[in-house]
Amino acid sequence: MLKRIIECVPNFSEGQDMNIINAITDSIKTVEGVKLLDVDPGKDTNRTVVTFVGEPENVIEAAFVAIKKASELIDMSKHSGKHPRMGATDVCPLIPVSNISMEETVEFARKLAKRVGEELQIPIYCYENAAFNKERSNLSVIREGEYEGLQNKLANPEWKPDFGPAKFNSKTGATVIGARSFLVAFNINLNTTSTRRANSIAFDVRERGRIKREGDKITGKIIKDSEGNPVYEPGSLKAVKAIGWFIEEYGIAQISMNLTDVNITPVHVVFEEVCKKANERGIRVTGGEIVGLMPLKTLIDAGKYFLKKQQRSVGVSEQELIKIAVKSLGLDDLKPFNAKEKVIEYLLEDEESKKLVDLSIVGFTNETASESAAPGGGSISAAVGAFGIALATMVANLSAHKRGWDDKWELFSNWAEKGENIKNELIKLIDIDTLAFNKIMDAFSLPKTNEEETAIRKKAIQDATKYAIEVPFSVMEHTFKAMEIIKEMTIIGNPNSVTDAGVGALCARTAIMGAFLNVKINSSGYNDKEFVNDIIKRGTDIEQKAILLEKEILDIVNQKIKL
């Protein structure tokens, strides 16, 4: 069964005393099954953002012990910082990561909120998807007035906490707990020290916008609605919250933003819009800063955006896309940016697992040549297929940059991107094929001392065998799709690289035939003959088409060589 994974990103009102910060994060580490991913203290904000992940029950246990430790060590009556705050643990959101719905995450958030309120006697408000009251779903609305206004807020019956006492605790303040989508905290650096100007840009872009005024936007009379509340003029970006501030540590003003849904407004769109608005005010953006973690897709999308803007091919490696994104967004402006420490997918990778794809060519070859049965022909077939499509992708990228072919860059970029996607799938299959072999070995090692165990063992062997058939067949399907790209590159690609595409065709045919051998040998041990007959028929069809297509591609290559 797939693990349910949620992320927790509590914000603690302490960013200067590392003894306190370490005590809080050490308490998180005591909970088994939780992985601490990131600790990001801010000196001027006097606030630390902590990120950890795990299965839901473990995560809410870790969140509870961290909130408890913060309540013991942080005294809000003595706290000051540039970031809005109302409690020792100011906000504690839960975020669904994998195999869990938002509705389920909401239940865990409310469970945590109830426990913290009752056991620690801290006033708790639930926000975002976990909010009981829609008017309280927005964090900025709940936190309005901050810690200094909390005593009066708690005395107002309309602001009775969702859990915990409606009583002011001067030491702990109040905490906001909820469930939300993945939020990217993104600060943009400006070449100014003016907080007022930074705020003006923030108001230009944030979804809430600025207070509407008659005449002059700064000094004009505030326009109010029928109930006497200020009317806001919306900013240019949806799902974006922003304020301006001065960071003494760096000696610059920043626009501090929370991107609450990067599917609606991606990081690169925010960056470009802020650049535009800053330029209109005579200010230049010098770079950006990611606080906490971000999804890999955020950087990939940004890298592709900036490459397309340069009319360059986007069919390049993940590492290259990240490099372009980091440089274009200026994420290394204030300090080095390490994607391995900032991208959540990288931090979730199993550090102990040994991957074939992470070995050098020499290491992979030596591992194959060793006395162990895996990796074997299946993994090699996937690797050869990956090399084949990599060559065609190279031809597409070279063609996109060929002098005199500037009007064709997008055409070749599209082909390169298709090739890159297939290459990535085949690379994954290198390790998956070995995993499939290991599943069979594990199934055969199961006990069979009684009838029940024998039945379980038999089913496990059959399930593993089916998986071991499907994996190399997937190699065949992906590689055959690659041959379409290979053929196209021999026809329209840079003629100086036609032989590279030809070698790609040779690799692809080899990969397909090699993978089919694995399909056939594994099929001999599978009892569902209807499934076996169908997959052998389909595999034979792919193999025969691949052999014919290889000949067709090589004929084109030899014609273009013209010896």
Largest β sheet strand count, sense and barrel closure: 7 strands, mixed
- The total count of helices amounts to 17
Low-confidence stretches: none
- Helix-strand string: EEHEEHEHEHHEEHEEEEHEHHHHHHHHHH
Shape: globular
Q: Beta-strand percentage?
A: 5-15%
Radius of gyration from the alpha-carbon trace, in angstroms: 29 Å
Helical residue percent? Answer: 40-55%
How many domain regions?
Answer: 3
Mean pLDDT: 93
Structural class: alpha+beta
CATH topology-level name of the largest domain: Four Helix Bundle (Hemerythrin (Met), subunit A)
Annotation, overall tally of beta strands:
13
Q: Kindly, what is the distance between the CA atoms of the first and last residues, rounded to a whole number of angstroms?
A: 59 Å
The CATH class of the largest domain turns out to be: Mainly Alpha
CATH-defined architecture of the largest domain: Up-down Bundle
The CATH homologous superfamily of the largest domain corresponds to Formiminotetrahydrofolate cyclodeaminase monomer, up-and-down helical bundle
In words, what does this structure look like?
The chain has three domains: 5-179, Formiminotransferase, N-terminal subdomain (Formiminotransferase-cyclodeaminase, Chain B, domain 1, 2-Layer Sandwich); 184-215 and 228-347, Formiminotransferase, C-terminal subdomain (Alpha-Beta Plaits, 2-Layer Sandwich), CATH 3.30.70.670; 358-561, Four Helix Bundle (Hemerythrin (Met), subunit A) (Up-down Bundle). The chain has 563 residues and is of the alpha+beta class. Helix 6 crosses helix 7, helix 13 packs antiparallel against helix 14 and helix 15 runs antiparallel to helix 16. Strands 1, 2, 3, 4, 5, 6 and 7 form a seven-stranded mixed β-sheet that branches. The protein has helices spanning 18-29, 56-73, 102-120, 139-142, 150-155, 195-205, 267-280, 296-309, 318-329, 339-342, 344-347, 361-369, 377-400, 409-444, 451-492, 498-523, 529-561; strands spanning 5-8, 11-12, 34-42, 47-54, 89-98, 124-128, 175-179, 184-190, 210-211, 232-233, 240-247, 252-259, 285-291. The protein is globular, with a radius of gyration of 29 Å. The protein contains 17 helices and 13 strands.
